[in-house]
Specification:
heterotetramer, A alpha+beta (164), B alpha+beta (290), C alpha+beta (775), D alpha+beta (199), A: 164 residues, alpha+beta, Ubiquitin-like (UB roll), DNA polymerase, domain 1, five-stranded mixed β-sheet, 5 strands, 32% helix, C: 775 residues, Aldehyde Oxidoreductase, domain 3, Aldehyde Oxidoreductase, domain 4, 3 domains, seven-stranded mixed β-sheet
Chain lengths: 164, 290, 775, 199
């Protein structure tokens, strides 16, 4: 008796209407219903952060949200960041600072750092590391990600654009 | 690790929520989901019915009434963390919130969810216990006020009947400029606390300790007050030695034993966390609660 | 300007940063089904019955496969992948458990349904009747007479026993001025890449072709295991490793689930996808758990090593999924970068009723280095010498290279350190860390009541393990360059590395080279990505293949342009006469010609096609090395250890891309910090795993690690044309040793002796209390 | 997990033994347990419900005397149960031994409980599983003692009408009973209301 419900939400700025099983998580809805496979599942118990997306502009674990809960809300995923191919300063900073290796945790890192830079335009390294403590990376040792965040913060403040 | 099947209900009001609670079989409230959803994905918790109360607006208000903060159960932890009202009137709550999980979980996690889930290592119960807060529960049968001291009924078992929901919490505010300290020991930033201390204290005109309230988390099923410590402090001139001896009473807490640490170690931590939280609270009291 | 050696931004990044990468679970094949696995709840039990009726009756469920339902060929146990004569009982896992289970999490049944949710609901209704048997829960207990036996058919739990060594150890110990002994327990835990194991099998009956997408580190090995068990022709089994979310060793081996879903896809005639979840990863994916050392060192009055000997016990788990490689590497790594005139190590591999252990980043070397560095720290303490000085007195000197250690490595070749300046490497690390000035900093901190300490550790790592890793490079008629290899990448930046090497040889920019890795159709044979071996093996193969194409294009262009080969040069995708750039042919034109022009015979000496596949086969392993310095603070009230600074000096021969090498070292160090302080896979006495989530198995977070300060040396190896060595695991190897040394230093004058990792706060508090009591 | 428990009763071993081996009578003493079928003199089927905070577990399985010595008054009861939602199983060997103690009897119960599967794998709840199990064994022992004493008094009153087993009413799960050292300060009435609350 997979109970279903129709929902309408905004995903990366576009309105989406679907009928979904009530128990379908938001992560699986994005990945398999909408085939937005940029959001990844690393643990499904709310710790690793690979599934982090922006819900009404604030980071959230999409593995701990039911898709039906986002009815009427807005969801932003990694696919919505670059506008048709032009990388954001944060994405460019990841390239310049080797902020990714396998890329599996990267979408979650980008979501977290997007909210960080919206909240604290001039974060210290310690603040960056505290915000990143909710996103686990096994490849980079966090070094490149922290450097990328600090680099992107400068660029967004117009001090020295990343990749200059 | 996919959630098991359940029926989904999305009340728009408290009365509608109470109806569901009274009529549905094996219902579970879904608030922030940061504790319930992991247990459902692990299939440890498999409720027949989910009542999603994220649209019950009246449960997320935060206001000051008669020298106390009345916080709706659905208030998000992150919103409370950023609230000026909480910072001014209940700074201990603000300080403790910085230790709750991570920003991404605090954006969704609620104060009511943390109290109803009642993980032995949760920070909110200790803060409320230190404030002698009152919890307000409601069911179709009526409402009930529960003192924080009676809230924990066992391992992750709050004082709620199956048809009741926690609707709000009233936290009596301490006087302007009071000292507050929250220190916990967690292996990594944002991890479960192995022991944590929440301290409130006020100084009299002569700089002596007028009143102190000390509550611990992570050392028993629910939060634990330390009356002996509080007694040892009141009327005394604060000093490292005083705090050392007063904090020593914390070693009498039961402690929790699991694969990660022994009871003895958690008791030792309880003493150290109490001492450090007292020091933090004293500094702030002497600086006028800055 | 050469592309080799420059920090080229990675070609892989754009797709991964925009969420357009293709990991296995991102692939949506039409009418694909999803699988869930019913796993053993007992560590050791007989299976007396499986009732899947209720599961099969559930809407949306297509099949439940048990051992009995598998094709005959897949009913046998999986092949022993790395045999060794010392193995007493070459037991490997069945695809689905037959009559008994030997670890919690062992696959018993495969449920296939419309989606994963339904598959898990159905898995709940597959009832397995178990008859519990005593379980071997602790690897040291398992050796005691009368202990529970992990395999009912055996009388004891000894998986393997062998001894390695050389020289006159007995005499050396008898005559030595000092002999110091240590007993050390080490836990390493698991790889825990962020992406669990994922696989998708699809069978096309009309061509009798099976395609398996899997995030395996060894596509060819998975293909060959399937063909070896089923007799299927290897050109009808295609394995593709798409984008992969990290490997770290646990995705090297072919796993039972790979074969189970292949059988299901063939039986059902529909693609079957299995995505292992994190709880399953904790119980059914290979780990590298426990080792116990009982070792002693003989030194002269000045602290110079005369001999080292001892015994090592290694927890193999219930099956030998990768032979006894890990303990073998440990035993042959222990002498490290030091002159050890006589050495003997007795190794015992032990069966326990736990999931198999196989190499995880470092592959037994972190444990061996920990043992050796602990012995040297002991010598320093006993002879009141500075730990760095004890190392200086024992390093293999630079002028002794190539240095024959006296041991034989697992590839059968003698252990010979090919190149490296170990003393200089330590000096670079000590200088960057401000080692000499540390004593003042320590004294100043002590006055503030703070306990800070410093420690160093050095290591040598066998990398570029043979036998080969092939690369094929082809120039297409459109002029673009495509390189293919069997080596799959898990984030190391292979695409960029190969492109830099090939670009240098063909005079193009790296982004002109398309690299397709991890596909068995790319090259006929392949080994896999592990043991820091790809750059050192496949790098030279790419170099040779591109070089052969360069020569061939020059030969063809010389023919077409009627010019002498020596007058020709390459740049920007063209071959042209030096000084007369407009007289030339584009790569595309040369390719069109090489592919055969009807009516024009091939010029003599020129074979058809413009492609080359090279298999560089190294004579033996090449040895990278490094020295680390850790600075820590110990909170003596709680036992917490915080890492204040971490410095590395690293030598992996010629560096292809410095940015990517720094990334490998930094990631490796943080993995090492996890092993030193946080990661511990716990089991109860009945071998039930009890830390099966990320809230209890603690991976290091951004807040638990400082910036990793790096300095590099480049001592090329003579063993391959590029002089490259491996860099994937060096960061992990000495980390625990350096951190533990720093913790002990922070607690002087207390005489705290740490003999176990990870160092938990509670254990450290107990050691401090014992040391204070002993004063 | 080994759990030991013992108590004394002012009754001769033989009489205490008679109550002890009457599984039908003693089964309700296990909190949350219910007997569902008597297979034979030695083997019984039943269920047991346990609540650990938000986690509800329901085991169904079999209990049988694998050893029994009516002269030495020793017996081993082997219990094996599978959790209803296939989340693991519980196996327990319960060793009973009666020894004369003056004119009464010392009853000792040694329980070796082993959980298996997901329910045994949450490290953070190990401590509480141990204390809930210990609490349940304590309650079982206390109830067993009551039964032995009731049997003694009813013997004296009227030998024929053995105490009828409690009417089969829906069994509430033994909830995650508070294990705080001060647990006993909880009022018994609230405890009973909790136990019979709607499951």
């Amino acid at each position: 008796m997979a109970e279903r419900l129709e929902i309408t939400l905004t995903v990366n700025g576009e309105s989406v209407t679907r009928e979904v099983p009530v128990r379908l998580t938001l992560a699986d809805f994005l990945r398999h219903e909408l085939e937005l496979t940029g959001t990844h599942l690393g643990c499904e118990h709310g710790v690793c952060g690979a599934c982090t997306i922006l819900l009404d502009g604030k980071t959230a674990r999409s593995c701990l949200l039911l898709a039906v809960q986002t009815d009427g809300m807005s969801v932003d995923t990694v696919e919505g960041m670059a506008d048709n191919g032009a990388l954001t300063p944060l994405q460019q900073a990841f390239i310049d600072n080797h902020g990714l290796q396998c890329g599996f945790c990267t979408p979650g890192m980008l979501a977290t750092l997007t909210e960080l830079l919206d909240t604290i335009p001039d974060p210290s390294e310690q603040e960056v590391r505290e915000w990143l403590s909710g996103n686990i990376c096994r490849c980079t040792g966090y070094q490149g990600i922290v450097d990328a965040a600090l680099d992107a913060a400068k660029a967004l403040r117009g001090e020295s654009p990343a990749g200059a | 690790m996919k959630p098991p099947p359940f029926s989904y209900h999305r009340p728009e009001s408290l009365p509608q929520t109470l109806d569901f609670l009274a009529t549905l079989d094996d219902p579970k409230i879904l608030a922030g989901g940061q504790s319930l959803m992991p247990m459902m994905n692990f299939r440890y918790v498999m409720p027949a019915n989910i009542i999603d109360i994220n649209r019950v607006a009246e449960l997320s208000t935060v206001e000051e009434t008669g020298g106390a903060l009345r916080i709706g159960a659905m208030a998000r932890q992150r919103d409370l963390e950023l609230s000026d009202l909480v910072q001014r009137r209940c700074p201990l709550l603000h300080e403790a919130l910085l230790n709750v999980g991570h920003v991404q979980t605090r954006n969704r996690g609620t104060i009511g969810g943390s109290l109803s889930h009642l993980d032995p290592a949760a920070e909110m119960p200790a803060v409320l216990h230190a404030h002698d807060a009152t919890l307000h529960a409601a069911s179709k049968r009526g409402t009930r006020d529960i003192a924080m001291a009676d809230w924990s009924q066992g391992f992750m078992t709050p004082n709620l009947e199956p048809d009741e929901i926690l609707t709000a919490i009233t936290i009596p505010c301490w006087p302007e400029g009071h000292g507050y300290g929250f220190v916990e020991f967690a292996r990594r930033h944002g991890d479960f606390a192995m022991a944590g201390a929440a301290v409130l204290l006020t100084l009299d005109a002569g700089g002596k300790i007028d009143r102190a309230s000390v509550a611990l988390t992570g050392v028993d099923n629910g939060p634990v007050r330390l009356p002996e410590t509080e007694a040892a402090l009141s009327g005394q001139t604060p000093s490292p030695d005083l705090f050392e001896s007063a904090a020593a009473h914390a070693s009498s807490v039961p402690g929790i034993e699991d694969v990660h640490a022994t009871k003895e170690y958690r008791r030792k931590l309880a003493v150290v966390m109490t001492k450090r939280a007292l020091g933090q609270a004293l500094d702030r009291a002497q600086a006028g609660g800055a | 300007m050469s592309w080799i050696g420059s920090a080229v931004p990675r070609l892989e990044d754009a797709t991964l940063l925009t969420g357009t990468g293709k990991f296995v679970d991102d692939i949506h094949l039409p009418n694909a089904l999803q699988a869930a696995v019913v796993r053993s709840t007992f560590a050791h039990a007989r299976i007396t019955g499986i009732d899947a009726a209720a599961a099969l009756a559930m809407p949306g469920v297509y099949a439940v496969f048990t051992h009995a339902d598998l094709p005959e060929a897949l009913k046998t146990a999986m092949p022993l992948l790395v045999p060794n004569p010392a193995i007493r009982y070459p037991v490997t896992q069945h695809v689905l458990a037959s009559d008994a289970v030997h670890f919690v999490g062992e696959a018993v049944a495969l449920v296939v349904a419309d989606d994963r949710y339904i598959a898990e609901d159905a898995a709940e209704l597959v009832f397995v009747d178990y008859e519990p048997l005593p379980a071997a829960g602790d690897f040291r207990e398992a050796l005691r007479p009368g202990a529970a036996v992990a395999h009912e058919t055996r009388e004891d739990n000894v998986a393997a026993e062998f001894t390695v060594g050389y020289g006159e150890t007995k005499a050396a110990f008898a005559e030595a001025a000092h002999v110091f002994g240590e007993t050390l327990f080490q836990h390493r835990g698991a790889g825990h890449a962020m992406e669990c194991r994922t696989m998708l099998a699809s069978y096309e009956a009309v061509t009798d072709t099976l395609t398996i997408w899997a995030n395996t580190q060894s596509p060819h090995q998975l293909r060959d295991v399937y063909c070896r068990m089923t007799g299927q022709a290897d050109n009808r089994v295609r394995v593709i490793a798409p984008d992969t979310g990290g490997g770290f060793g646990s995705k090297v081996q072919a796993y039972p689930e790979h074969l189970a879903i292949a059988a299901a896809a063939i039986a059902l005639g529909r693609p079957v996808k299995y995505i292992e979840d994190r709880r399953e990863h904790f119980t059914a994916t290979h780990q590298e758990r426990d080792q116990f050392y009982d070792v002693e060192i003989a030194v002269d009055g000045d602290g110079r090593i005369k001999a080292v000997r001892g015994s090592l016990i290694h927890d193999c788990g219930a099956h030998l999924a990768w032979g006894i490689i890990t303990p073998f590497i440990s035993a042959t790594t222990l002498p490290g970068p030091y002159v050890v005139p006589a050495y003997q190590m007795k190794v015992t591999g032990v069966f326990t009723n736990k999931v198999a252990t196989t190499p995880v980043r470092g592959a037994g070397r972190p444990q061996a280095v920990f043992a050796m560095e602990r012995l040297l720290d002991r010598v320093a303490r006993e002879l009141s010498l500075d730990p760095a000085e004890v190392r200086r007195r024992n390093f293999v000197p630079a002028d002794a290279m190539p240095y024959k250690v006296g041991l034989t490595f697992r590839d059968g070749s003698p252990v010979i350190y090919d190149s490296g300046d170990y003393p200089a490497c330590q000096e670079k690390a000590l200088t960057l860390a401000g080692y000499d000035a540390f004593k003042e900093r320590q004294a100043a901190a002590r006055t503030e009541g703070r306990h800070i300490g410093i420690g160093t550790a050095s290591y040598v790592e066998g990398t570029g393990l043979g036998p080969f890793e092939g690369v094929s490079v082809q120039i297409m008629p459109a002029g673009n360059i495509i390189a293919q290899t069997g080596a799959a990448a898990q984030g190391q930046g292979h695409q960029t590395m190969f492109a830099q090497i090939i670009a240098d040889r063909l005079g193009v920019a790296p982004d002109a080279v398309t690299v397709i890795g991890g596909e068995t159709t790319g090259v006929a044979y392949g080994i896999g990505t592990f043991a820091s071996r790809v750059t050192a093996n496949a790098g030279p193969s790419a170099h040779l293949a591109a070089g052969n194409l360069r020569d061939k294009m020059i030969k063809i262009a010389a023919h077409l342009l009627e010019a002498a080969e020596d007058d020709l040069d390459l740049a920007d995708g063209r071959v042209f006469v030096k000084g007369v750039p407009e007289m030339g042919k584009s790569f595309g034109e040369i390719a069109v010609f090489a592919n055969g022009m009807p009516g024009f015979s091939m010029p003599d000496g020129i074979t058809p096609g413009l492609d080359d596949t090279s298999y560089f086969t190294p004579e033996r392993s090449t040895y990278a090395n490094g020295a680390h310095v850790a600075e820590v603070e110990v909170d003596i009230e709680t036992g917490r250890v915080s890492i204040l600074r971490y410095v590395t000096a690293h030598d992996c021969g010629t560096i292809i891309n410095p940015m990517m090498v720094e990334g490998q070292v930094a990631g490796g160090v943080v993995h090492g910090i996890g092993n030193a302080l946080f990661e511990w896979m716990r089991y109860d006495e009945a071998a039930q795993p009890v830390t099966v989530n990320f809230g209890e198995y603690l991976l290091p977070l951004a807040t638990e690690t400082p910036a990793i300060e790096q300095t590099h040396m480049e001592t090329p190896t003579p063993l391959n044309p590029l002089g490259v060595k491996g860099a994937g695991e060096g960061g992990t190897i000495p980390a625990a040793a350096a951190i533990v040394s720093a913790i002990e230093n922070a607690l002087t004058p207390l005489d705290v002796k740490i003999a176990q990792v990870p160092v938990t706060p509670e254990a450290l508090l107990d050691l401090i209390a014992d040391a204070e009591a002993a004063r | 997990m080994k759990l030991e428990n013992s108590f004394d009763v002012p009754v001769a071993p033989a009489e205490a033994w008679r109550v002890l081996i009457d599984v039908e009578r003693v089964a309700p003493c296990v909190p949350g347990a219910a007997l569902t079928e008597v297979v034979d003199a030695n083997t019984y089927k039943g269920t047991i419900k346990v609540k650990l905070g938000p986690v509800s577990l329901a085991f169904d399985g079999e209990v049988s005397f694998t050893e029994r010595d009516d002269d030495a008054f020793t017996a081993r009861l082997a219990a094996a149960g599978r959790e209803g939602r296939n989340r693991g199983s519980a196996n327990a060997d319960v060793d009973f031994a009666l020894a004369a103690n003056g004119d009464g009897t010392k009853v000792s119960i040694v329980t070796d409980l082993q959980l298996a599967g997901p329910i045994a794998q949450y490290g953070r709840s190990q401590g509480v599983i141990a204390s809930v199990s210990a609490e349940m064994i304590d309650r079982f022992a206390a109830c067993l003692k009551e039964n032995i004493l009731d049997d003694k008094s009813s013997d004296a009153a009227d030998a024929e009408t053995a105490a009828a087993p409690a009417p089969a009413e829906p069994v509430a799960a033994a909830s995650g009973i508070s294990i705080m050292l001060g647990a006993l300060k909880r009022s018994i009435c609230r405890f009973m209301r909790r136990l019979t609350g709607k499951e």
